[in-house]
């Protein structure tokens, strides 16, 4: 990579953080103006952190608990956030959906649910092609608002490093609103339960009545016992995104005064995508040097050897909670491919938190031409994930979802059936299809049933 960096960025942090620059980095934009990139990343390297290292350490502990079966992770949000939708309403709806799902899952798992948004930084996307051609015109592919614009014009599609700073500012503002909502009483357990009761009023969801009634009774029981509901008015909520654009992640990395370790302060949790997890690649090298809890997406082509090598490379000290494997195999594949991977890792003694992403292995093109998923496939992959872990005596640690709090029509199915014709109604995503608010809750009820099975 021929990337020019600012002096501030080069000098910050422990040695080796820039080693990734000598390695192949896939899925990076071609910035037209290296000097402008250096100026932008130089400024970012001086900017205030979005999250602080101590919170990242807390999350490592929570994920370690999820790895032991003492907690369950719920991670969710858009495939790609957009600058235009980073407003209070959309953020609130997303948080509300995650909190509602978390109440249902807490009941199903009988353990605390660790809540995490794909939020406040999910602005960069890997693409299958560098370019897109329409009507004979070829332009760079849309790579996320952090890099270029979605509109099919030369100006929008040209990568602009100023967008890195815009992503930082909008992510900071988002993180601020997330904190306000999750600390300020919005997350009150009784209120969240009331929202779930609203969902249950729709007769389409009658099949979940038993679980809903049980939650109702549990909350009344807690109340009768004098539980301190005031203490339940705020919740821990963590932020995460795919660490794709290394110029951004490197610029946001700071040395923690307490420990002397480097933390990527752009999010609590960062993950390496399926397309950038090469052992000798730049992403794995960079992520091996930061102290945040991290994840790696593992697709159906993953071999047990690949997984083992990643545990050695990314968690040589075998710290519980440091490394999460987010498996995204596909409903038809998970039962065949996952067992050998889990067995190999378990026999090696490596500590890994296992999470299912039932979205990315189940993407199809509908007859009407939309990129979509079937809710039944999504649920089937979750079921397969639980079956495999149950059979092996290992721990299913959580769920990684693409969802929104809004009433979109992007995924097929659900009790309020979205059909192929229905997709056109409110298909709003710029990249992958998301479960809408109702489908997300329905999924939570079904997963809660699986957790108890
Ligand atoms: C994603 O999470 O949006 C994504 C691109 O996933 P994956 O790396 O698993 O394909
Ligand atoms: Mn996606």
From TrEMBL:
<feature type="binding site">
    <location>
        <position position="402"/>
    </location>
    <ligand>
        <name>Mn(2+)</name>
    </ligand>
</feature>
<feature type="binding site">
    <location>
        <position position="328"/>
    </location>
    <ligand>
        <name>phosphoenolpyruvate</name>
    </ligand>
</feature>
<feature type="binding site">
    <location>
        <position position="432"/>
    </location>
    <ligand>
        <name>Mn(2+)</name>
    </ligand>
</feature>
<keyword id="KW-0028">Amino-acid biosynthesis</keyword>
<keyword id="KW-0464">Manganese</keyword>
<dbReference type="GO" id="GO:0003849">
    <property type="term" value="F:3-deoxy-7-phosphoheptulonate synthase activity"/>
</dbReference>
<keyword id="KW-0808">Transferase</keyword>
<protein>
    <recommendedName>
        <fullName>Phospho-2-dehydro-3-deoxyheptonate aldolase</fullName>
        <ecNumber>2.5.1.54</ecNumber>
    </recommendedName>
</protein>
<dbReference type="InterPro" id="IPR002480">
    <property type="entry name" value="DAHP_synth_2"/>
</dbReference>
<dbReference type="InterPro" id="IPR013785">
    <property type="entry name" value="Aldolase_TIM"/>
</dbReference>
<keyword id="KW-0170">Cobalt</keyword>
<feature type="binding site">
    <location>
        <begin position="274"/>
        <end position="275"/>
    </location>
    <ligand>
        <name>phosphoenolpyruvate</name>
    </ligand>
</feature>
<dbReference type="GO" id="GO:0008652">
    <property type="term" value="P:amino acid biosynthetic process"/>
</dbReference>
<feature type="binding site">
    <location>
        <position position="118"/>
    </location>
    <ligand>
        <name>phosphoenolpyruvate</name>
    </ligand>
</feature>
<dbReference type="GO" id="GO:0009073">
    <property type="term" value="P:aromatic amino acid family biosynthetic process"/>
</dbReference>
<comment type="similarity">
    <text>Belongs to the class-II DAHP synthase family.</text>
</comment>
<feature type="binding site">
    <location>
        <position position="360"/>
    </location>
    <ligand>
        <name>Mn(2+)</name>
    </ligand>
</feature>
<keyword id="KW-0057">Aromatic amino acid biosynthesis</keyword>
<dbReference type="GO" id="GO:0009423">
    <property type="term" value="P:chorismate biosynthetic process"/>
</dbReference>
<dbReference type="Pfam" id="PF01474">
    <property type="entry name" value="DAHP_synth_2"/>
</dbReference>
<comment type="pathway">
    <text>Metabolic intermediate biosynthesis; chorismate biosynthesis; chorismate from D-erythrose 4-phosphate and phosphoenolpyruvate: step 1/7.</text>
</comment>
<feature type="binding site">
    <location>
        <position position="297"/>
    </location>
    <ligand>
        <name>phosphoenolpyruvate</name>
    </ligand>
</feature>
<keyword id="KW-0104">Cadmium</keyword>
<feature type="binding site">
    <location>
        <position position="79"/>
    </location>
    <ligand>
        <name>Mn(2+)</name>
    </ligand>
</feature>
